[in-house]
Design brief:
The complex is a heterodimer of chains A (481) and B (306).
Chain A (H helix, E strand, L loop, with lengths): L7 H15 L4 H17 L6 H20 L3 H38 L20 H16 L9 H9 L1 H4 L7 H8 L7 H34 L6 H32 L17 H7 L2 H12 L9 H19 L3 H19 L19 H22 L3 H11 L13 H16 L8 H6 L2 H18 L12
Chain B lengths: L1 H31 L11 E4 L2 H4 L10 E3 L7 H14 L5 E5 L8 H7 L1 H11 L5 H10 L1 H15 L2 H5 L20 H14 L13 H16 L3 E6 L9 H14 L5 E3 L18 H18 L5
Parallel strand pairs in B: 1-2, 1-3, 3-4, 4-5
Amino acid sequence: LLFNSLDYFLFLPLVFILYWFVTYKKLALQNGMLLVMSYVFYGWWDWRFLFLLLFSTLLDYISGIKIHKSENLVRRKFWLVLSIGINLGFLGFFKYYNFFAAEFGSLLHQLGFNVNEFTFKIMQIILPVGISFYTFHGLSYIIDIYKKRIPAVYNFVEYALFVSYFPLLVAGPIERATHLLPQLQVPRKFNYYQAVTGLRQILWGLFKKVVIADSCAYYANMIFNTSGDYNGSTLFLGALFFTFQIYGDFSGYSDIALGTSKLFGIELLRNFAFPYFSRDIAEFWRRWHISLSTWFRDYLYIPLGGSKGGKWMKVRNTFAIFLVSGFWHGANWTFMVWGFLNALYFIPLLLSNKNRDHINIVAAGKLLPSLSDLRKIAITFFLTVLAWIFFRSADLTQAWYILTTIFSSSLLQPLQVFPKEPLLLIMFFTLIEWIGREHQFAIESFSLKCNKWLRFCFYMILTIMVFLYSGKEEVFIYFQF
Amino acid sequence: LKHFLLKFSLFFFVFVLFIFSINRWADHYVRNNSFYKFNDSVVSIIIGHSHAEGAYIDSILPHTVNMAQSGESYFYSYLKLRKLLEANNNIRRVMIEVTNNNFEKEMDEWTFGEMYLRYRYQKYAHLLHPEELRLLFGKNPLAVIDAVAVTLKNNLDYKRVVSMPYYNYTDWGGFKKWEHSKIDSFLQVQNKQKQIKPVVMAIPIFKESEYNLRFLDSMVALCRQHQKQILFLRAPQHPSNRNPFIDSIYFKTLSARYSAIPLIDFGNMELPDEEYLDFQHVNFKGAIKVSKRLDSVLHEQYPLSF
């Protein structure tokens, strides 16, 4: 089910009613219902992949208990390696098999080996939606038990719900057992303020996705798909549209997920914190896809030594985390270069110990940023736009062509495409995000600052805009990861 | 919880009421600011989908406008015809393309399928009567809600508001000129497939489209009510596309339901391959021949006195 589909807006009230009116008396019943509905939600796309989800859940559930029960290090390690191996094996097969088969075949061919079409057969593999997300849920759970940070969960429904809780199942946020499981293990009480905030967050998420991202997507796709037809200025505009498309799309999804979960009295991890107002790339990465960044920090960067070692270790670990992050997004060199480029942006800050210079949100308590902050925001934003070109391009050749055209005299030529409507929408959106940047999500502040009639009108306008722009539902970009 | 549900319901009610009202207003506005009037000399119109759209050149056929449009089922043709007859008293003859696939179940998808409905709804929403809207909603409610959103956004577009008319009759159809022919490449593919895997002739399964027939009935009734001459047309089909089984059902249905309406049948008209666009449509060269033939048939057998 898509969050921006009409089916979802029939599904959600149904689950809400079952949750608060039918199953509310018994926690086990409530969790069981949520689990069943989460499987319905996932199976709506392709029921066959429910077996994969169930298998992965069972594997981690059993491995968790085995690791927790045993004091024997070898046995603990065995279950840890088994669980990680099988989980990553599935992920590797579904997501990366074709990439490695093609690349390895091509390498052997270049080395002079006789490679025929059957040596490394390219298969028609359907990537199960959300596999990268639920695999990471499971991995964090198993690693945390192995590290004795948490005990194993013996109630299967609770664990299965932790993995497949529908608001976060297909595109995160990537939850931690320490954060979500305790909430699933206690009875939830309906909280009016929390539910209303949830609805507002859903509305803002829909606005980001349906109005901003989908409007930008039209022009971003048009310009990127026929990039050879455009001059530098238009290609830069295309990159700018994609920059807002991906933010609106993914942070919109996260807002809907967080808002939905609030309706059930469950708080999820925050995933975005106004990343385009960052003053350097380190701050950007503290504000963009936070649940993935912190996952890599905790389960990859720190185990590798983090920034405790010497300079070279810091550099190595930084490259490792960014390259893996790039590769996590997909089996394409463009994602790797995107990760590499971000590492390049990040390293100077790390080596000069400036990577934690900007912890708080920019211009806190003020209406406008200082000129210095504005300059830093503009530079960081520009660097981010350039990196997104690699993320969006079909291959490295296209990305290189777009970059070289942007950095040529054709950047000064008039725009070949000048769509006023999406540009006005972007301006309106940026303004609202700026006003609300000190809050969990941009329009949360409206409930605190405005009187109820103004609020009502504002939410009504947003709802009408979402409806008018919702004519053609688009799939969320992050479903493919 | 009750307070929450109450407030949410109130908000939702106001939203639905607002959308409903503005949609009604927009439909009214579009209806009053669209242009459906033909030149007074026009006395004949042609209705149908792509077979007719590419087969009848209205500049060859005197006093005739080809209003056929690709992918249009009779439900939408009926809405179009109703409005055109209302706006053009001078129309005296209605020619409806009744080709083999008009009776097939596939036409239900052309009427209620999400993609078709979204596209057609934008053109005809302002002409829908409540029972017609109910029919669409009953068959595919989600697609109708989706189509209302798209239509409303289009209708509220300031560029359309300032550049009248909203809809011109040319948005609803017209002759389409296809100059090329894909028959050679199609036949090559067909022969290759036969070489790889010999084609086993299976008994075709035919399922009738209840709704397309119902709205063909409605068009016929409408023409009779307005005392217009009705003719059925069938455009040429490439020999590869002719199917005796489907043909037998086609003629059986025609004789059972519409025996009083003459059929001008070009279905088996012999044309060289280069005069077809594909197996189902003639191209411009073919259309010239078909149109001239139609003109002479009309002139000789169904003359209109002026």
